[in-house]
Structures are given as structure tokens and as C-alpha cells.
Design a protein that fits this description.
The structure is a homodimer.
Chain A lengths: L7 E4 L7 H12 L6 E5 L1 H6 L4 E3 L6 H4 L4 E5 L16 H16 L5 E3 L5 H6 L7 H8 L14 E6 L2 E5 L9 H4 L2 H17 L7 E5 L14 H17 L2 E6 L7 H4 L4 E4 L2 H11 L5 E5 L5 E4 L16 H19 L1
Parallel strand pairs in A: 1-2, 1-5, 2-4, 3-4, 5-12, 7-10, 8-9, 8-10
Antiparallel strand pairs in A: 6-7, 6-11, 11-12
Helix pairs in contact in A: 8-9
């Protein structure tokens, strides 16, 4: 008999943004669908927004409450935020919400962590010392064992219905990308991706498509040398030493049409926009950000705090809903394996 | 009464590639549809492929022959090529075909030039001294007057049904892109694009979306400085000095979904793949390459010689057909204006 799945932990994110609104909308869309989550937030502020709230003393109670009320695990602090404004005064609550979610996932009271968007500048102004969510989650889970002894990330993946892309370099200036790419970086991240595809996504023999850096993947050295010096050796090592079905370097512009997408399970891209342009062009409203190589499962919607539309009731919950669905799928697979 | 449109001139391209095959398929698809073109090639080789051929002595005769036979303006030389093999021995015929097409367009015997893909390495091995088609066409038309005294390009545009993108730098290594971008380069190319949109595409007040270079368009200087130093001043100058409706720098990853595409008439991109990834992801088989800022109209299919499938009868003519349609549309508009 299958063990029941623990609920998903959803963090509050920046309280001045759209997090609470899309959480309430997602709860409304998902109640009665079998999946359940709890929000870690200030229950009073959710009630003020008109949501029926169930205050939890234990995360696991979320499952029984979910059909009738939005389960909220209360933070010790009140959250007083103004929509449209990211304020450092909320920073303590924002990080506490993330810490509680991670704790719940590590001790099995949550099956996965789904994070609402945070406002980095506001957190950093209050002393938060991480470039972003991903690095913070990596630090919080640093001492936990990787399931199955797998390789540790974090590696960022964007996932949509028929496309998964992984930027091998992320939030760095484009001019620094060529220097940041090494054979080791490509091989190590590719191995994290391959293990995650197998164990979390259920792809027995993952096919990795590796993009080139330059136009036409360098055209045999005529347009740039990084393919020859870095990417070709990385692909060769992945194939020879790790028996990974890696292909490339491929011209990035011809990798993402429908027939090309059918040939691989994930596209490994050399820089942020090479990975983000195709996924957001194809699936702007329902792409999901997944962090691979953490001891816990973590997904998040693929958008920011949207301060400009917060509090107006017009935020689209599609990406959060997709993130919740994907987290539940990944958790169910981890439970079975 | 409207003057009749002269036929389109179609070059042979690399004879070892798919050019002749897609030309025959395009003729079959388009006969009886009002549009007509002539191929500049060796008639014997087309007949050997089973096509009914009409040998032309004058390009203008193509119109009357088109419904019943593929009009071919004969080259003086025989073309003996093996499918799947690009050979320097064909170089003279390949360049002669391009020259004749340009001559016909300049003297009004052709309404536009549509070019089949060439094999640059094979041509260069035979002494061809240009990086590619576009530069050769620019040289061949150097002394001709720009219609309406407009700005001279060449500027490459990729056009699909609901997206037009322009790479401001093209076939250079990615590491050289930041250095190649200057305020003048962006402004000059944007002005060519704006004029072409107005005069060739019929867009009275073109809206140009200008992409950022770095992730999140630099996030206000936190991820790279080119937006602040180069792109912001270029957008400001386009607006202030030229009254162009230019917007940006925009984060490149959120510029290309359907709602975003509706907000502009062309997206100006900082490098090759930033422009080519979205267009080929959305319209792999029917995107068209257009050269803006030439005294003649020139389009081409957005793919290469496809040596690997040449002679097998499986090449897809969609992009060539789209290129012929677009060339005819642009020519009709130029005729009216």
C-alpha cells in the first residue's frame, strides 16, 4: 500500500508582492484535487484578504483541512506589509517562512518546498547574505544527506510541459560567461541534471542536449573557440567517463522547435537567456523553476514578486499551480523509489 | 491601374544542396497563385530532375510561362554537382546566378531577389572574398541609389507571421559582442529597421523593442553595465533625436511570448542567438531572412544548404515559399508607394 504523501510547504515570499494572492487562488483551484499544501505566513493577513484559514499546529494536519480552508502554519511574528512595496521590515518573517518550510521537508512533515517570489534587495537591506533563494536553500540543507548519495547542486532547471532547460551560468554579466564556462562546470552540472532526471523525473536514460555558446555552435571554430576548447571535451567526458547520452555542442537557435525538443530530456544552456528565452517564449505562464541537487524537493513559480500588480486581484496563479503540481509529482516519485 | 509586378528572381544557391529541389517544389506549390519567379540555373540539371522547364531569354517572360513550366534563365556555364557535396568548382556558377539576379532587380526585370542557401566555405575556397551572401549583395548594389534616399544597410531581419527580430551583431563570437555594441551601431541599425518597416512593411509608426544584453536586462546595473552605458543612451537618442517609438532595454527572456510580441513591430537583439532562438523556436519551418537597407528587395529561406538530405526528395520548401511570398508582398508595396 502506498504511503500517503505529506503536504507541500509553501513559503510566503515577499508579503508586498503577489504571493498571498496567488496562494489563495491556487488553493481555490486545487482543493478537492488530491494535492494539498500549507502556507507559512501570518494567518491574520490571509483572513484580512477574505480567505477561510485553518491555523495548523502540525503541518500534517493540512491534508484534512485542505478541502475546506487554506491551511496556514503561523509564523511567530505579525506581517504588516503594504501591497506594491517591498520593505526590509518583513525580512525576518520572509526568511523564517523559508526556514520552517525547509525544516518541515527535512523531517518529512512536508513532501516538498514550493517558494513564493522574494524581493532580494529588500532582504539584503535587512542583512540577508545570499544572492538569492537557491543559495539560501543550499545553505539551509547543507548538512542533510543527499538521498541515494547523489551529487549535490544546486542546479537551476526551468521545466514546462515539453521542454526542460538548465542554464549552466545564471545571474552573471554576459561578458563574464565565456570565462565562467569550464569542462568541470559543464560536467559536474550535467551529472546533477542526469541524476535528477532519473531519480526525480523518472527518465531511465536521460538524453542531454548541450548547446553551443557561439552562433552556429562556433561553425567548427570559425566563430569562436569555446566549443572546441570547452564544450566538445565536456561532452566527450560525459559520454566516455560517465556513459551519459550527451549530444552537442548544438547550434542554440535550432534546438528548441517541436521536433528538436522531442530529441532530448533536458537542454543544457551556456547562459541565462539561452535557457530562459525558449522556455518563456513557449510557456510564459506555466513554466516552473526547479532546484536540482538539493536534499529536498524545491520548485517555484517562474516569475518575480510583481509589485506593480500586487493587491489588485489580477495576478495569474498558473505558474504557482504548475510549481505545486510538479513538486507533488516529484515527491510522489521519490516516495516510490 | 496597377502596374503588373515583375517576376521574382531566385538564385540557384549551392548546387550540391537542396536549392533545386525546393525551387521545383515551390514552383509546384505556387503555380496558378498569381506570384511568379524564375530560377537562374543550368536548365539541363533541372530537366534531369524531372521538372518541366521553360528556358527564358528575358526574365519578364517568366510570368507567362509560370503556370505551365518552371522558368529558368540559363547560366552560360554547365553546372555539374553531386548532391550532398559542396564543391568549389561550382563557385563561378553560384556567384553568376547571384549577379544576374541583382542585375535583373536593379533594372526592373525582377521585382525582388530571393536567394537559395550558399556554401560559404566552398565559395571561399574558390576565391570568393565575402563573409556571406549579405555582404556580397551589399557590394553588388553599392552604386545603386537607395529608393527614397533611405539609409543604407545591410541589416538582417528574421520575419515570421507574428514576430520580426533583428540581430544587431551577427556572425561574431559571443565574447566579442559586448565590445561590438555601441550607441552608434544600435541607433544606425534601428533607423534602417524603422525606415524599412515603414516603407517596405507598411507600418506607419514602427514600435521597436530593444533587448538588454545581460540577464534581466542588467537588473539596474547589478548584472552588467552595457545596458546603462550603451543601450539606455541609444534608446534615449532614438526617441529624442529621431522620434522613434523605441522601448528598452527589455529583459530578453520576457520579450517573446504572445502578449509581449503584440507590443512591438520588431525586436532589436544584441546578438545572433538572442534574435534567432525565439524566431526558430516559434517558426522553424517558415521564418524568412530579409535584408533591410539594400536598394533591392532581398529575402531568403532561413536555413542552410542541408547537404545531408540533398537529393533525397525530402527537403521542406516551406521557408523558401514563405520567402517568395514575403518578397512579393514587399515588392508590391514598393511599387505602390
Amino acid at each position: 500500500m502506498a504511503r500517503p504523501l505529506a503536504p507541500l510547504a509553501l513559503t510566503m515570499g515577499e508579503p508586498g508582492g503577489v504571493g498571498a494572492e496567488i496562494a489563495i487562488k491556487a488553493w481555490n483551484a486545487l482543493r478537492g484535487q488530491g494535492l494539498s499544501f500549507f502556507l507559512i505566513d501570518d494567518p491574520l493577513r490571509l483572513e484580512a484578504m477574505g480567505a477561510p484559514v485553518a491555523r495548523l499546529s502540525s503541518p500534517l494536519d493540512a491534508v484534512s483541512h485542505f478541502p475546506s480552508a487554506l491551511p496556514v502554519l503561523p509564523l511567530p511574528q505579525r506581517v504588516e506589509a503594504r501591497f506594491g512595496e517591498a520593505a526590509p521590515r518583513s525580512a525576518e518573517a520572509v526568511t523564517a517562512s523559508i526556514e520552517k518550510a525547509v525544516d518541515a521537508a527535512l523531517c518529512g512533515e512536508a513532501s516538498a518546498v514550493v517558494t513564493n517570489p522574494i524581493h532580494k534587495a529588500a532582504l539584503q537591506a535587512a542583512g540577508f547574505d545570499f544572492p538569492g533563494h537557491t543559495e539560501y536553500l543550499a545553505a539551509l540543507t547543507e548538512k542533510a544527506r543527499m538521498p541515494g548519495g547523489r551529487r549535490r547542486g544546486p542546479v537551476m532547471m526551468l521545466a514546462a510541459t515539453d521542454l526542460r532547460t538548465v542554464p549552466l551560468t545564471v545571474h552573471i554579466p554576459l561578458r563574464d560567461v565565456p570565462m565562467a564556462l569550464t569542462v568541470d562546470v559543464i560536467v559536474e552540472k550535467a551529472l546533477v541534471v542526469a541524476e535528477a532526471l532519473t531519480w526525480d523525473f523518472g527518465v531511465a536514460a536521460p538524453r542531454l542536449a548541450i548547446a553551443g555558446l557561439n552562433p552556429h555552435a562556433g561553425e567548427g571554430g570559425a566563430i569562436g573557440s569555446e566549443e572546441r576548447d570547452v564544450i566538445v571535451p565536456a561532452v566527450a567526458r560525459l559520454r566516455a567517463e560517465h556513459a551519459i547520452d550527451a549530444t552537442g555542442p548544438l547550434p542554440a537557435d535550432t534546438m528548441f522547435h517541436a521536433a528538436a525538443r522531442a530529441r532530448y530530456d533536458a537542454a543544457l544552456c551556456m547562459y541565462h537567456d539561452q535557457a530562459l528565452i525558449p522556455i518563456k517564449t513557449l510557456a510564459f505562464f506555466d513554466a516552473v523553476n526547479v532546484t536540482l541537487g538539493l536534499p529536498i524537493i524545491r520548485t517555484s513559480p517562474d516569475h518575480g514578486t510583481a509589485l506593480d500588480i500586487a493587491g489588485k486581484g489580477i495576478a495569474d496563479p498558473s505558474s504557482l499551480i504548475a510549481a505545486l503540481h510538479l513538486a507533488a509529482d516529484l515527491a510522489a516519485r521519490r516516495l516510490r523509489s
